[in-house]
Amino acid sequence: MVSHVWQAITRKKRFEGDSHLDSNLRRCLGLMDITFLALGQMMGAGIYVLTGTVVRNQAGPSIIFSFALAGIAALLSAFSYAEFGARFPRAGSAYTYTYIGFGELWAFIVGWTIPLEYMIGNAAVARSWSAYFDNMLDNYIKNTTIGALGELSEPGGFFSTYPDILSFLLICLCACVIAVGPKVSANVNSSFVVLNIVVIFIVIVSGICYADFNNWTGTTSDGRSMFFPFGLTGTLTGAATCFFSYIGFEVLATAGEEVKSPHRTIPVATFLSIGVIMTLYILVSSTLTLMVPYDQVHTTAPFAEAFSARGCTTVMYIISIGALIGLTNNLVTGVFALPRAVYAMADDGLIFKWLAHVTSSTKVPLNAIVIFTLLNAIIALIFDIEALVEFLSIGTLFAYSFVSGSVLVLRYQSAPIDGDGKRMDNGGELSSWIPARNFWESLPAGTSISLGVAALIGSFFWLAFTFRTGFYEHWYGQISIGFNGLLIVLVMAFILGHQQNSLETSFKVPFVPFLPCLSLLVNVFMMAYLTTATWIRLFVWMGVGLLIYFSYGIRHSKEAKKLTTIADIRMSSTFPNKNNRITKT
Hints:
The protein contains 22 helices and no strands. By secondary structure, it is mainly alpha-helical. Helix 13 runs antiparallel to helix 14.
Protein backbone atom coordinates (compact mmCIF):
# COMPACT_ATOMS: atom_id res chain seq x y z
CA MET A 1 0.00 0.00 0.00
CA VAL A 2 2.74 2.44 1.02
CA SER A 3 4.79 1.59 -2.07
CA HIS A 4 1.80 2.24 -4.34
CA VAL A 5 1.21 5.66 -2.74
CA TRP A 6 4.92 6.49 -3.05
CA GLN A 7 4.92 5.55 -6.74
CA ALA A 8 1.83 7.70 -7.26
CA ILE A 9 3.11 10.88 -5.61
CA THR A 10 6.55 10.63 -7.28
CA ARG A 11 5.41 9.91 -10.85
CA LYS A 12 6.58 12.59 -13.27
CA LYS A 13 5.01 14.22 -16.28
CA ARG A 14 6.52 13.10 -19.56
CA PHE A 15 6.12 14.23 -23.14
CA GLU A 16 6.80 11.95 -26.09
CA GLY A 17 8.34 13.54 -29.19
CA ASP A 18 6.51 16.80 -30.00
CA SER A 19 3.54 16.01 -27.78
CA HIS A 20 4.46 19.03 -25.65
CA LEU A 21 3.26 21.17 -28.57
CA ASP A 22 -0.17 19.50 -28.70
CA SER A 23 -2.89 21.57 -27.09
CA ASN A 24 -6.64 22.07 -26.96
CA LEU A 25 -5.94 25.82 -26.82
CA ARG A 26 -5.21 27.96 -29.86
CA ARG A 27 -1.59 28.90 -30.65
CA CYS A 28 -2.12 32.43 -31.92
CA LEU A 29 0.12 34.73 -29.83
CA GLY A 30 3.31 36.17 -31.29
CA LEU A 31 6.42 37.71 -29.70
CA MET A 32 4.95 41.18 -29.16
CA ASP A 33 1.66 39.75 -27.86
CA ILE A 34 3.23 37.84 -24.99
CA THR A 35 5.91 40.48 -24.32
CA PHE A 36 3.12 43.00 -23.84
CA LEU A 37 1.26 40.50 -21.63
CA ALA A 38 4.28 40.38 -19.31
CA LEU A 39 4.71 44.16 -19.41
CA GLY A 40 1.02 44.59 -18.65
CA GLN A 41 1.35 42.35 -15.60
CA MET A 42 4.45 44.18 -14.33
CA MET A 43 3.68 47.77 -15.37
CA GLY A 44 1.11 49.29 -13.05
CA ALA A 45 1.09 48.77 -9.31
CA GLY A 46 4.91 48.70 -9.28
CA ILE A 47 5.10 52.25 -10.61
CA TYR A 48 1.99 53.97 -9.36
CA VAL A 49 1.48 52.32 -5.96
CA LEU A 50 4.71 50.71 -4.73
CA THR A 51 7.24 53.45 -5.60
CA GLY A 52 5.98 56.04 -3.10
CA THR A 53 6.03 53.64 -0.15
CA VAL A 54 9.55 52.34 -0.87
CA VAL A 55 10.99 55.85 -1.36
CA ARG A 56 9.36 57.32 1.75
CA ASN A 57 9.78 54.46 4.21
CA GLN A 58 12.56 52.16 3.03
CA ALA A 59 15.16 53.33 0.52
CA GLY A 60 14.89 57.02 -0.37
CA PRO A 61 16.60 57.92 -3.69
CA SER A 62 18.56 54.65 -3.50
CA ILE A 63 15.37 53.02 -4.77
CA ILE A 64 17.05 53.03 -8.16
CA PHE A 65 19.48 50.42 -6.78
CA SER A 66 16.58 48.60 -5.11
CA PHE A 67 14.83 48.24 -8.47
CA ALA A 68 18.11 47.18 -10.13
CA LEU A 69 18.85 44.53 -7.49
CA ALA A 70 15.27 43.26 -7.59
CA GLY A 71 15.47 43.07 -11.37
CA ILE A 72 18.66 41.00 -11.17
CA ALA A 73 16.99 38.65 -8.65
CA ALA A 74 13.99 38.28 -10.96
CA LEU A 75 16.35 37.65 -13.87
CA LEU A 76 17.91 34.72 -12.00
CA SER A 77 14.50 33.05 -11.80
CA ALA A 78 13.66 34.13 -15.35
CA PHE A 79 16.57 32.08 -16.73
CA SER A 80 14.99 28.90 -15.36
CA TYR A 81 11.53 29.85 -16.61
CA ALA A 82 12.94 30.60 -20.05
CA GLU A 83 14.60 27.19 -20.37
CA PHE A 84 11.44 25.35 -19.33
CA GLY A 85 9.30 27.59 -21.53
CA ALA A 86 11.49 26.69 -24.50
CA ARG A 87 11.52 22.96 -23.68
CA PHE A 88 7.90 22.48 -22.57
CA PRO A 89 5.61 25.34 -23.69
CA ARG A 90 2.55 24.26 -21.73
CA ALA A 91 -0.06 26.04 -19.63
CA GLY A 92 0.56 25.79 -15.91
CA SER A 93 3.98 27.40 -15.68
CA ALA A 94 5.75 26.46 -12.41
CA TYR A 95 3.24 23.67 -11.78
CA THR A 96 4.07 21.90 -15.06
CA TYR A 97 7.81 22.43 -14.63
CA THR A 98 7.72 20.98 -11.09
CA TYR A 99 5.69 18.02 -12.40
CA ILE A 100 8.48 17.29 -14.88
CA GLY A 101 11.30 17.80 -12.38
CA PHE A 102 10.10 16.61 -8.94
CA GLY A 103 6.93 14.61 -9.48
CA GLU A 104 3.19 14.76 -8.95
CA LEU A 105 2.79 15.62 -5.27
CA TRP A 106 5.18 18.58 -5.31
CA ALA A 107 3.64 19.71 -8.59
CA PHE A 108 0.21 19.73 -6.98
CA ILE A 109 1.51 21.70 -3.98
CA VAL A 110 3.09 24.32 -6.26
CA GLY A 111 0.07 24.36 -8.56
CA TRP A 112 -2.30 24.80 -5.64
CA THR A 113 -0.54 28.07 -4.67
CA ILE A 114 -0.69 29.60 -8.17
CA PRO A 115 -4.49 30.21 -8.48
CA LEU A 116 -4.50 31.74 -4.99
CA GLU A 117 -1.53 33.90 -5.97
CA TYR A 118 -3.38 35.23 -9.00
CA MET A 119 -6.68 35.71 -7.16
CA ILE A 120 -5.12 37.72 -4.34
CA GLY A 121 -3.02 39.71 -6.81
CA ASN A 122 -6.03 40.47 -8.98
CA ALA A 123 -8.12 41.44 -5.96
CA ALA A 124 -5.38 43.76 -4.71
CA VAL A 125 -5.07 45.44 -8.11
CA ALA A 126 -8.86 45.77 -8.46
CA ARG A 127 -9.06 47.36 -5.02
CA SER A 128 -6.20 49.74 -5.87
CA TRP A 129 -7.98 50.69 -9.10
CA SER A 130 -11.21 51.27 -7.19
CA ALA A 131 -9.49 53.39 -4.53
CA TYR A 132 -7.60 55.47 -7.11
CA PHE A 133 -10.80 56.14 -9.07
CA ASP A 134 -12.78 56.87 -5.91
CA ASN A 135 -10.15 59.37 -4.73
CA MET A 136 -10.71 61.31 -7.93
CA LEU A 137 -14.41 61.46 -6.93
CA ASP A 138 -13.61 62.52 -3.34
CA ASN A 139 -14.56 59.02 -1.99
CA TYR A 140 -18.13 59.32 -3.26
CA ILE A 141 -18.43 55.58 -4.04
CA LYS A 142 -17.09 54.50 -0.64
CA ASN A 143 -19.34 56.89 1.31
CA THR A 144 -22.41 55.97 -0.74
CA THR A 145 -21.81 52.23 -0.29
CA ILE A 146 -21.34 52.53 3.47
CA GLY A 147 -24.43 54.73 3.68
CA ALA A 148 -26.55 52.18 1.80
CA LEU A 149 -25.11 48.85 3.07
CA GLY A 150 -23.22 49.77 6.22
CA GLU A 151 -19.74 48.65 7.27
CA LEU A 152 -18.58 45.02 7.14
CA SER A 153 -16.01 45.24 9.93
CA GLU A 154 -13.67 47.52 11.82
CA PRO A 155 -10.50 48.73 10.01
CA GLY A 156 -7.56 46.33 10.22
CA GLY A 157 -9.65 43.17 10.40
CA PHE A 158 -9.77 40.14 8.12
CA PHE A 159 -12.74 41.58 6.24
CA SER A 160 -12.88 44.88 4.40
CA THR A 161 -14.51 47.87 6.06
CA TYR A 162 -17.07 48.00 3.25
CA PRO A 163 -18.06 45.83 0.25
CA ASP A 164 -16.09 47.09 -2.74
CA ILE A 165 -18.71 46.63 -5.46
CA LEU A 166 -16.64 48.51 -8.07
CA SER A 167 -13.71 46.07 -7.80
CA PHE A 168 -16.17 43.13 -8.01
CA LEU A 169 -17.63 44.48 -11.27
CA LEU A 170 -14.19 45.34 -12.65
CA ILE A 171 -12.92 41.76 -12.30
CA CYS A 172 -16.11 40.42 -13.93
CA LEU A 173 -15.72 42.89 -16.82
CA CYS A 174 -12.11 41.82 -17.42
CA ALA A 175 -13.22 38.17 -17.42
CA CYS A 176 -15.77 38.94 -20.14
CA VAL A 177 -12.95 40.31 -22.31
CA ILE A 178 -10.80 37.25 -21.60
CA ALA A 179 -13.65 34.86 -22.45
CA VAL A 180 -13.87 36.23 -26.02
CA GLY A 181 -10.54 34.63 -26.90
CA PRO A 182 -6.78 34.95 -26.30
CA LYS A 183 -6.05 37.12 -29.34
CA VAL A 184 -8.75 39.67 -28.45
CA SER A 185 -7.57 39.90 -24.84
CA ALA A 186 -3.95 40.22 -26.00
CA ASN A 187 -4.90 43.07 -28.34
CA VAL A 188 -6.77 44.88 -25.57
CA ASN A 189 -3.80 44.46 -23.26
CA SER A 190 -1.32 45.64 -25.91
CA SER A 191 -3.34 48.81 -26.42
CA PHE A 192 -3.23 49.54 -22.69
CA VAL A 193 0.52 48.87 -22.56
CA VAL A 194 1.21 51.35 -25.38
CA LEU A 195 -0.91 54.02 -23.69
CA ASN A 196 0.83 53.38 -20.38
CA ILE A 197 4.31 53.68 -21.89
CA VAL A 198 3.28 57.02 -23.46
CA VAL A 199 2.12 58.26 -20.04
CA ILE A 200 5.37 57.10 -18.39
CA PHE A 201 7.46 58.99 -20.96
CA ILE A 202 5.37 62.11 -20.35
CA VAL A 203 6.08 61.72 -16.62
CA ILE A 204 9.82 61.28 -17.20
CA VAL A 205 10.24 64.15 -19.66
CA SER A 206 8.04 66.54 -17.65
CA GLY A 207 9.59 65.56 -14.33
CA ILE A 208 13.18 66.04 -15.47
CA CYS A 209 12.35 69.72 -16.05
CA TYR A 210 11.93 70.06 -12.27
CA ALA A 211 14.97 67.97 -11.30
CA ASP A 212 16.95 69.16 -8.30
CA PHE A 213 20.13 67.19 -7.68
CA ASN A 214 20.29 68.56 -4.14
CA ASN A 215 17.69 65.89 -3.37
CA TRP A 216 20.42 63.30 -4.03
CA THR A 217 23.45 64.98 -2.49
CA GLY A 218 24.40 66.20 0.95
CA THR A 219 23.02 65.03 4.27
CA THR A 220 19.80 65.31 6.23
CA SER A 221 19.39 67.38 9.38
CA ASP A 222 20.34 64.37 11.51
CA GLY A 223 23.45 63.59 9.46
CA ARG A 224 22.15 60.81 7.20
CA SER A 225 23.00 60.60 3.51
CA MET A 226 20.29 62.09 1.30
CA PHE A 227 20.80 59.30 -1.22
CA PHE A 228 20.96 56.48 1.36
CA PRO A 229 18.80 57.89 4.19
CA PHE A 230 18.02 54.41 5.54
CA GLY A 231 21.47 52.99 4.86
CA LEU A 232 22.35 49.89 2.86
CA THR A 233 19.83 47.88 4.89
CA GLY A 234 17.06 50.15 3.65
CA THR A 235 18.17 49.69 0.05
CA LEU A 236 18.15 45.89 0.44
CA THR A 237 14.76 45.96 2.19
CA GLY A 238 13.47 48.08 -0.68
CA ALA A 239 14.85 45.53 -3.13
CA ALA A 240 12.90 42.74 -1.40
CA THR A 241 9.74 44.84 -1.70
CA CYS A 242 10.44 45.86 -5.31
CA PHE A 243 11.05 42.23 -6.29
CA PHE A 244 7.33 41.63 -6.53
CA SER A 245 7.03 44.31 -9.20
CA TYR A 246 8.76 41.87 -11.57
CA ILE A 247 6.73 38.72 -10.99
CA GLY A 248 4.57 39.31 -14.07
CA PHE A 249 7.02 37.54 -16.40
CA GLU A 250 5.51 34.26 -15.16
CA VAL A 251 2.46 34.97 -17.34
CA LEU A 252 4.65 34.10 -20.35
CA ALA A 253 4.97 30.52 -19.15
CA THR A 254 1.31 30.36 -18.17
CA ALA A 255 0.34 31.24 -21.76
CA GLY A 256 2.81 28.70 -23.19
CA GLU A 257 0.12 26.65 -24.98
CA GLU A 258 -1.14 29.69 -26.90
CA VAL A 259 2.21 30.94 -28.21
CA LYS A 260 3.38 30.50 -31.78
CA SER A 261 6.97 29.20 -32.16
CA PRO A 262 7.28 28.90 -28.36
CA HIS A 263 10.80 27.43 -28.33
CA ARG A 264 12.20 30.74 -29.54
CA THR A 265 9.50 33.21 -28.57
CA ILE A 266 9.21 32.54 -24.82
CA PRO A 267 12.93 33.02 -23.92
CA VAL A 268 13.19 36.19 -26.04
CA ALA A 269 9.99 37.66 -24.58
CA THR A 270 11.12 36.83 -21.03
CA PHE A 271 14.37 38.78 -21.20
CA LEU A 272 12.92 41.55 -23.36
CA SER A 273 10.09 42.27 -20.91
CA ILE A 274 12.36 42.25 -17.83
CA GLY A 275 14.90 44.52 -19.57
CA VAL A 276 12.23 47.04 -20.60
CA ILE A 277 10.46 47.12 -17.24
CA MET A 278 13.72 47.43 -15.26
CA THR A 279 14.73 50.42 -17.37
CA LEU A 280 11.34 52.10 -16.90
CA TYR A 281 11.34 51.48 -13.13
CA ILE A 282 14.78 53.03 -12.73
CA LEU A 283 13.91 56.06 -14.89
CA VAL A 284 10.60 56.88 -13.18
CA SER A 285 11.98 56.42 -9.65
CA SER A 286 14.95 58.64 -10.54
CA THR A 287 12.55 61.30 -11.82
CA LEU A 288 10.41 61.19 -8.68
CA THR A 289 13.32 61.45 -6.23
CA LEU A 290 14.89 64.31 -8.20
CA MET A 291 11.59 66.22 -8.18
CA VAL A 292 10.74 65.82 -4.48
CA PRO A 293 12.86 65.23 -1.35
CA TYR A 294 12.37 61.63 -0.28
CA ASP A 295 10.67 62.57 3.03
CA GLN A 296 8.02 64.60 1.17
CA VAL A 297 7.03 61.86 -1.29
CA HIS A 298 3.35 60.88 -1.06
CA THR A 299 3.01 57.16 -0.32
CA THR A 300 -0.19 56.36 -2.24
CA ALA A 301 -0.15 58.82 -5.18
CA PRO A 302 3.52 59.89 -5.44
CA PHE A 303 3.64 61.19 -9.02
CA ALA A 304 0.27 62.91 -9.01
CA GLU A 305 1.10 64.74 -5.77
CA ALA A 306 4.59 65.64 -7.00
CA PHE A 307 3.24 67.38 -10.11
CA SER A 308 0.36 68.89 -8.16
CA ALA A 309 2.88 70.54 -5.81
CA ARG A 310 4.57 72.04 -8.89
CA GLY A 311 1.27 73.39 -10.21
CA CYS A 312 1.23 71.00 -13.20
CA THR A 313 -2.47 70.19 -13.09
CA THR A 314 -2.60 68.82 -16.64
CA VAL A 315 0.22 66.34 -16.05
CA MET A 316 -1.39 65.35 -12.72
CA TYR A 317 -4.59 64.33 -14.51
CA ILE A 318 -2.60 62.49 -17.19
CA ILE A 319 -0.83 60.55 -14.44
CA SER A 320 -4.15 59.69 -12.77
CA ILE A 321 -5.43 58.32 -16.06
CA GLY A 322 -2.13 56.50 -16.60
CA ALA A 323 -2.41 54.89 -13.15
CA LEU A 324 -5.86 53.54 -14.01
CA ILE A 325 -4.54 52.25 -17.36
CA GLY A 326 -1.55 50.59 -15.68
CA LEU A 327 -3.68 48.92 -13.04
CA THR A 328 -6.10 47.77 -15.74
CA ASN A 329 -3.07 46.21 -17.47
CA ASN A 330 -2.27 44.29 -14.31
CA LEU A 331 -5.82 43.11 -13.95
CA VAL A 332 -6.37 41.98 -17.56
CA THR A 333 -3.21 39.89 -17.58
CA GLY A 334 -3.89 38.47 -14.11
CA VAL A 335 -7.44 37.47 -15.07
CA PHE A 336 -6.02 36.00 -18.30
CA ALA A 337 -3.48 33.83 -16.44
CA LEU A 338 -5.72 32.60 -13.60
CA PRO A 339 -7.93 30.14 -15.56
CA ARG A 340 -4.90 28.85 -17.52
CA ALA A 341 -3.27 27.82 -14.24
CA VAL A 342 -6.47 26.04 -13.21
CA TYR A 343 -6.87 24.45 -16.66
CA ALA A 344 -3.40 22.87 -16.49
CA MET A 345 -4.14 21.02 -13.25
CA ALA A 346 -7.65 20.02 -14.33
CA ASP A 347 -6.41 18.76 -17.70
CA ASP A 348 -3.94 16.53 -15.83
CA GLY A 349 -6.78 15.18 -13.68
CA LEU A 350 -5.40 16.49 -10.37
CA ILE A 351 -8.45 18.70 -9.77
CA PHE A 352 -11.97 18.36 -11.13
CA LYS A 353 -11.87 17.49 -14.84
CA TRP A 354 -14.79 19.71 -15.88
CA LEU A 355 -12.61 22.75 -15.12
CA ALA A 356 -10.51 21.77 -18.17
CA HIS A 357 -13.42 22.11 -20.62
CA VAL A 358 -12.41 24.26 -23.63
CA THR A 359 -15.11 25.83 -25.79
CA SER A 360 -14.95 24.90 -29.47
CA SER A 361 -15.57 28.45 -30.73
CA THR A 362 -13.24 30.62 -28.65
CA LYS A 363 -10.76 27.91 -27.49
CA VAL A 364 -10.73 29.18 -23.90
CA PRO A 365 -11.29 27.21 -20.63
CA LEU A 366 -14.69 28.77 -20.02
CA ASN A 367 -15.67 26.79 -16.90
CA ALA A 368 -12.43 27.75 -15.17
CA ILE A 369 -12.94 31.39 -16.18
CA VAL A 370 -16.49 31.53 -14.78
CA ILE A 371 -15.87 29.70 -11.48
CA PHE A 372 -12.57 31.32 -10.55
CA THR A 373 -13.63 34.78 -11.70
CA LEU A 374 -16.54 34.61 -9.27
CA LEU A 375 -14.23 33.45 -6.45
CA ASN A 376 -11.78 36.20 -7.36
CA ALA A 377 -14.50 38.87 -7.45
CA ILE A 378 -15.84 37.76 -4.04
CA ILE A 379 -12.34 38.02 -2.52
CA ALA A 380 -12.08 41.58 -3.88
CA LEU A 381 -15.58 42.39 -2.64
CA ILE A 382 -15.38 41.45 1.02
CA PHE A 383 -11.84 40.64 2.16
CA ASP A 384 -9.21 43.03 3.42
CA ILE A 385 -6.43 42.61 0.88
CA GLU A 386 -3.67 43.78 3.21
CA ALA A 387 -4.42 40.81 5.49
CA LEU A 388 -3.91 38.39 2.58
CA VAL A 389 -1.39 40.05 0.27
CA GLU A 390 1.70 38.40 1.83
CA PHE A 391 0.40 35.16 0.33
CA LEU A 392 1.54 36.69 -2.97
CA SER A 393 5.08 36.81 -1.66
CA ILE A 394 5.37 33.30 -0.27
CA GLY A 395 3.40 31.66 -3.10
CA THR A 396 5.49 33.30 -5.80
CA LEU A 397 8.82 32.58 -4.12
CA PHE A 398 7.72 28.99 -3.43
CA ALA A 399 6.97 28.47 -7.12
CA TYR A 400 10.16 30.20 -8.31
CA SER A 401 12.28 28.01 -6.04
CA PHE A 402 10.82 24.81 -7.43
CA VAL A 403 11.36 25.97 -11.01
CA SER A 404 15.04 26.68 -10.30
CA GLY A 405 15.40 23.30 -8.60
CA SER A 406 13.63 21.58 -11.48
CA VAL A 407 16.20 22.95 -13.93
CA LEU A 408 18.92 21.19 -11.95
CA VAL A 409 16.97 17.93 -11.98
CA LEU A 410 16.26 18.27 -15.70
CA ARG A 411 19.92 18.85 -16.55
CA TYR A 412 21.41 16.08 -14.44
CA GLN A 413 18.85 13.30 -14.71
CA SER A 414 19.28 10.39 -17.10
CA ALA A 415 18.79 11.08 -20.77
CA PRO A 416 15.91 9.43 -22.69
CA ILE A 417 16.23 6.01 -24.31
CA ASP A 418 16.24 5.89 -28.11
CA GLY A 419 14.38 3.50 -30.37
CA ASP A 420 17.06 0.82 -30.03
CA GLY A 421 16.72 0.77 -26.25
CA LYS A 422 20.02 2.60 -25.71
CA ARG A 423 20.44 5.74 -23.62
CA MET A 424 21.06 8.81 -25.80
CA ASP A 425 24.00 10.05 -23.70
CA ASN A 426 25.63 9.68 -20.28
CA GLY A 427 23.36 12.17 -18.57
CA GLY A 428 22.88 11.48 -14.87
CA GLU A 429 25.92 9.21 -14.67
CA LEU A 430 27.89 9.67 -11.43
CA SER A 431 31.60 10.31 -11.25
CA SER A 432 33.75 7.50 -9.87
CA TRP A 433 34.80 9.54 -6.80
CA ILE A 434 31.20 9.84 -5.49
CA PRO A 435 30.89 7.78 -2.23
CA ALA A 436 28.41 4.89 -2.39
CA ARG A 437 28.17 5.31 -6.13
CA ASN A 438 26.62 1.89 -6.67
CA PHE A 439 23.85 2.68 -4.18
CA TRP A 440 22.94 6.00 -5.85
CA GLU A 441 22.92 4.41 -9.31
CA SER A 442 20.64 1.61 -8.07
CA LEU A 443 17.90 4.16 -7.33
CA PRO A 444 15.30 5.09 -9.97
CA ALA A 445 16.53 7.57 -12.60
CA GLY A 446 16.69 11.14 -11.32
CA THR A 447 16.36 10.19 -7.62
CA SER A 448 19.93 11.00 -6.59
CA ILE A 449 19.93 14.49 -8.13
CA SER A 450 16.46 15.18 -6.69
CA LEU A 451 17.70 14.25 -3.21
CA GLY A 452 20.76 16.44 -3.71
CA VAL A 453 18.61 19.46 -4.68
CA ALA A 454 16.29 18.81 -1.71
CA ALA A 455 19.29 18.74 0.64
CA LEU A 456 20.57 21.99 -0.85
CA ILE A 457 17.21 23.71 -0.32
CA GLY A 458 17.13 22.45 3.27
CA SER A 459 20.65 23.81 3.85
CA PHE A 460 19.66 27.21 2.45
CA PHE A 461 16.65 27.36 4.77
CA TRP A 462 18.86 26.41 7.71
CA LEU A 463 21.26 29.24 6.84
CA ALA A 464 18.47 31.76 6.22
CA PHE A 465 16.67 31.10 9.51
CA THR A 466 19.98 31.29 11.39
CA PHE A 467 20.23 34.90 10.22
CA ARG A 468 16.48 35.54 10.52
CA THR A 469 16.37 34.52 14.19
CA GLY A 470 19.59 36.35 15.10
CA PHE A 471 21.37 33.15 16.18
CA TYR A 472 24.39 34.16 14.08
CA GLU A 473 25.31 36.67 16.82
CA HIS A 474 26.00 33.85 19.30
CA TRP A 475 28.77 31.27 19.35
CA TYR A 476 26.38 28.36 18.76
CA GLY A 477 24.92 30.18 15.76
CA GLN A 478 28.39 30.69 14.30
CA ILE A 479 29.15 26.99 14.75
CA SER A 480 25.83 26.24 13.05
CA ILE A 481 26.79 28.46 10.11
CA GLY A 482 30.13 26.63 9.85
CA PHE A 483 28.49 23.19 9.72
CA ASN A 484 25.87 24.50 7.31
CA GLY A 485 28.52 25.97 5.01
CA LEU A 486 30.34 22.63 4.96
CA LEU A 487 27.10 20.81 4.15
CA ILE A 488 26.37 23.20 1.25
CA VAL A 489 29.86 22.62 -0.18
CA LEU A 490 29.43 18.83 0.06
CA VAL A 491 25.99 18.91 -1.56
CA MET A 492 27.25 21.15 -4.37
CA ALA A 493 30.12 18.69 -4.93
CA PHE A 494 27.58 15.84 -5.06
CA ILE A 495 25.52 17.72 -7.67
CA LEU A 496 28.63 18.47 -9.72
CA GLY A 497 29.47 14.77 -9.54
CA HIS A 498 26.52 14.09 -11.88
CA GLN A 499 27.11 14.36 -15.60
CA GLN A 500 24.81 16.75 -17.47
CA ASN A 501 22.78 15.34 -20.30
CA SER A 502 23.20 16.85 -23.76
CA LEU A 503 19.58 17.41 -24.73
CA GLU A 504 19.34 20.25 -27.22
CA THR A 505 16.94 23.16 -26.88
CA SER A 506 16.70 26.72 -28.16
CA PHE A 507 17.68 28.16 -24.76
CA LYS A 508 19.58 26.83 -21.75
CA VAL A 509 20.33 28.43 -18.39
CA PRO A 510 24.04 29.35 -18.36
CA PHE A 511 26.48 28.47 -15.56
CA VAL A 512 24.53 25.44 -14.31
CA PRO A 513 24.42 24.54 -11.44
CA PHE A 514 25.67 27.82 -9.97
CA LEU A 515 23.11 30.25 -11.39
CA PRO A 516 20.01 28.17 -10.43
CA CYS A 517 21.55 27.59 -6.98
CA LEU A 518 22.06 31.33 -6.54
CA SER A 519 18.43 31.88 -7.51
CA LEU A 520 17.38 29.28 -4.92
CA LEU A 521 19.47 31.00 -2.24
CA VAL A 522 17.92 34.43 -2.94
CA ASN A 523 14.37 33.05 -2.96
CA VAL A 524 14.84 31.05 0.24
CA PHE A 525 16.22 34.07 2.12
CA MET A 526 13.24 36.16 1.01
CA MET A 527 10.82 33.46 2.21
CA ALA A 528 12.62 33.17 5.55
CA TYR A 529 12.02 36.86 6.27
CA LEU A 530 8.24 36.60 5.84
CA THR A 531 6.06 36.63 8.95
CA THR A 532 5.09 33.54 10.95
CA ALA A 533 1.41 34.25 10.25
CA THR A 534 2.11 34.00 6.53
CA TRP A 535 3.67 30.56 6.94
CA ILE A 536 0.71 29.40 9.06
CA ARG A 537 -1.76 30.56 6.38
CA LEU A 538 0.30 28.74 3.76
CA PHE A 539 0.17 25.47 5.71
CA VAL A 540 -3.59 25.81 6.20
CA TRP A 541 -4.11 26.39 2.47
CA MET A 542 -1.85 23.43 1.71
CA GLY A 543 -3.86 21.24 4.05
CA VAL A 544 -7.02 21.95 2.08
CA GLY A 545 -5.21 21.24 -1.18
CA LEU A 546 -3.73 17.95 -0.01
CA LEU A 547 -7.19 16.81 1.08
CA ILE A 548 -8.40 17.37 -2.51
CA TYR A 549 -5.35 15.61 -3.97
CA PHE A 550 -5.53 12.44 -1.87
CA SER A 551 -9.32 12.17 -2.17
CA TYR A 552 -9.55 12.95 -5.91
CA GLY A 553 -6.38 13.83 -7.81
CA ILE A 554 -4.26 10.79 -6.97
CA ARG A 555 -6.95 8.52 -8.49
CA HIS A 556 -7.82 10.62 -11.56
CA SER A 557 -4.30 11.62 -12.59
CA LYS A 558 -3.74 11.48 -16.36
CA GLU A 559 -0.15 10.33 -15.76
CA ALA A 560 -1.47 7.40 -13.69
CA LYS A 561 -3.69 6.34 -16.59
CA LYS A 562 -0.73 6.58 -18.97
CA LEU A 563 1.38 4.35 -16.74
CA THR A 564 -1.49 1.86 -16.45
CA THR A 565 -1.85 1.74 -20.23
CA ILE A 566 1.89 1.19 -20.70
CA ALA A 567 1.86 -1.57 -18.08
CA ASP A 568 -1.07 -3.30 -19.81
CA ILE A 569 0.74 -3.16 -23.16
CA ARG A 570 3.89 -4.64 -21.64
CA MET A 571 1.87 -7.34 -19.87
CA SER A 572 0.04 -8.31 -23.05
CA SER A 573 3.31 -8.52 -24.98
CA THR A 574 4.90 -10.66 -22.27
CA PHE A 575 1.88 -12.92 -21.70
CA PRO A 576 -0.15 -12.92 -24.91
CA ASN A 577 -3.65 -14.30 -24.71
CA LYS A 578 -4.69 -17.48 -26.42
CA ASN A 579 -6.00 -15.67 -29.49
CA ASN A 580 -2.53 -14.21 -30.13
CA ARG A 581 -0.55 -17.41 -29.63
CA ILE A 582 1.31 -18.96 -32.55
CA THR A 583 0.26 -22.56 -33.09
CA LYS A 584 2.17 -25.23 -34.89
CA THR A 585 0.64 -27.08 -37.84
